[in-house]
Amino acid sequence: QVQLVESGGGLVQPGGSLRLSCAASGFIFSIYTMGWYRQAPRMQRELVASINSWHSTEYADSVKGRFTIYRDNEKNTVYLEMNYPKPEDTAVYYCNADLGYSDYEVFWGQGTQVTVSS
């Protein structure tokens, strides 16, 4: 039973910080590329950040220098640290696991709401 369970979402003020967590189970976590996606109202789902099995990272231009993705393979958990959040970061954030070559090996979490407002 594959599970990706997000936590840590909620309301945060601009200039504050927030850490999202995604706890994974049911697959070999360490060999999957893990990612965070987000979807705002009336917008397409977009990649925010990803980290592969070698701990190499990619970031959307809009979050570079502000967000950090990292993983703890011993805990089967991937994190997204959100620093200096902006109102335009408000969205539902989704955890993703992708082996890279098969649709069968792509998994999604349920999503967690992040709202940035003063």
Question: Order of SSEs, N→C?
Answer: EEEEEEEEEEE
Basic shape: globular
Q: What's the gyration radius in Å?
A: 14 Å
What's the total count of β strands?
A: 11
How can the largest sheet be summarized? Answer: 7 strands, mixed
Give the helix proportion (percent range). Answer: under 10%
Tally of alpha and pi helices: 0
**DSSP strand (E) fraction?**
over 45%
Q: List unreliable stretches of 5+ residues.
A: none
Mean pLDDT: 97
- Alpha-carbon distance between the termini? 40 Å
Structural class, by secondary structure, is mainly beta
Concise overview:
With 118 residues, the chain is mostly beta strands.
Provide structural commentary.
- The protein is mainly β.
- It has no helices and eleven strands.
- It has strands spanning 3-7, 10-12, 17-25, 33-39, 46-51, 57-59, 67-72, 77-83, 91-98, 106-108, 112-116.
- The chain is globular.
- The chain starts with a strand and ends with a strand.
- The mean pLDDT is 97.
Keywords for this structure?
118 residues, mainly beta, four-stranded antiparallel β-sheet, 53% strand
